[in-house]
Design a protein that fits this description.
By secondary structure, this protein is an alpha/beta fold. It has 8 helices and 8 strands, in the order βαββαβααβαβαβαβα. The chain is globular, with a radius of gyration of 16 Å. Bound molecules: phosphoenolpyruvate (PEP).
Amino acid sequence: MIIGNWKMHKTSEEAAAYMRAFLPQVKGFKVGLAVPFTALHAVQNDAVLIGAQNMSDEMSGAFTGEISCAMIKDLGAKFVLLGHSERRDVFQESNSFILRKVKRAQEEGILPILCVGEKEGQELERVLQEQLKGISGNLLIAYEPVWAIGTGKTAKPEQIEKAHRFCKGLLGKKTEILYGGSVNSENIAEIASIKEVDGMLVGGASLNPDTFAKIVHQSGRKK
Ligand code: PEP
């Protein structure tokens, strides 16, 4: 699976235009898009898996400004990104808070994609162990070294392999792990060929439908 993360980009009109250009180019590929809440209704389709980029840990209630799992499901989301490094850093989301969201998503029957990864200078194993504490059940992991997100730097194949193997060691061999961090059309082929990499999470390079469609093709991830 290769998943694009639009972050806070695109109005619903721009999202619909993107889909008109993108869908005909990615027929037969295993691809998903994590879009803003406000674009979920505009990207509904049968070929590309649609997801949200966050959700509340609560079911409903007095939580002004929050969006629940039932609400994103209602708009067609089949997965939800949780614990993205921007949520952890900019919005101070803690491991325990993110764990509650993962459990909520699993209870409500939507696939959580939990983002994990170390900052520059941090010890990889220690960080992954803390971020994956209490995590189990049906989910995907996205390993994204924080220093590689949006920077143009990517982790070396040995490091990606080591991190993915470590996550699989904690969660079970069958757990699928995506790699994220400045994936683009220049490096996708090498990243996709790494043994432990089950898919990719692509941020900036997913914003243009033609560029992302090219990356999807280069990934070779067919249905
Ligand atoms: C991301 O948003 O998860 C990401 C990996 O971004 P980028 O590809 O731009 O580094």
